[in-house]
Structures are given as C-alpha cells and as structure tokens.
Design a protein that fits this description.
Elements (H helix, E strand, L loop, with lengths): L3 H22 L5 H17 L11 H12 L14
Helix pairs in contact: 1-2
Length: about 80
C-alpha cells in the first residue's frame, strides 16, 4: 500500500511534465506528436537534467559514479573487448 508521500512525488513529476513538456512545447496536433514529446522529455528527465540533490549532476552520471565507488574494478569502456 502506498502513502501520501508516494502520491506527492507522483504529482510533483506530473506537474513538471505538464509545465516543461505539454505547456511549453504544445499544443500538439496529434497523439503521436504528444507521445514523441513525452518520450523525449522522459529521456531528458532520466538522463540529462541537473538535479540539486545530486550535486547538480545528471542522474545517470551520479549512478555511474556510485557503482564505480562500490565496485572499483576496472570496467571496460563501451565497445572495448573483454578479456577473461
């Protein structure tokens, strides 16, 4: 079961979405246009936005740094061959 804080977080994200995507980029002529704008906004929100609680770094960068700290093994770079 959820609590009031779950609803507050969801309402906060929905409010951001409406303000930053729907109202800013709209009005949309078709549902497809709205869907593409939504996909773009969600991608930006999850990967590129600067988040104050994370030290003004994007969420994906923060997550990568977190996993590097807890698993300091040298990880291959993307596209680099893995030697076992």
């Amino acid at each position: 079961m959820g609590d009031a804080y779950d609803n507050a977080l969801a309402e906060s994200v929905i409010g951001l979405y409406k303000t930053e995507c729907v109202r800013l980029d709209g009005p949309f002529k078709t549902v497809d246009e709205l869907e593409l704008a939504t996909l773009s906004w969600v991608h930006w929100y999850n990967t590129a936005r600067l988040h104050s609680a994370l030290g003004y770094v994007p969420p994906t960068e923060y997550e990568d740094d977190h996993y590097r700290q807890i698993n300091p093994r040298q990880q291959p770079l993307p596209g680099q061959l893995i030697v076992h």
